[in-house]
């Protein structure tokens, strides 16, 4: 009996800058940068989710 339980999605969460929707494991999510002072709103924010449904990285980039 394997006690490890794998999920198919990462839960929704707030990272201090943006709200991220539930996202499938083994994928990444992206959305426009928020409209905060000094932020380039033409850029995008990206987050990766590993196959164990853990948010593993963040990246913000200008377009």
UniProtKB/TrEMBL annotation:
Annotated G-protein coupled receptors family 2 profile domain residues: 10-63
Transmembrane spans: none
A Pfam family this chain is assigned to: HRM
GO CC term, one of those recorded: membrane
Coiled coil: none
UniProt GO MF annotations: G protein-coupled receptor activity
Superkingdom field: Eukaryota
Protein name: G-protein coupled receptors family 2 profile 1 domain-containing protein
Provenance organism: Astyanax mexicanus
Lineage: Eukaryota, Metazoa, Chordata, Craniata, Vertebrata
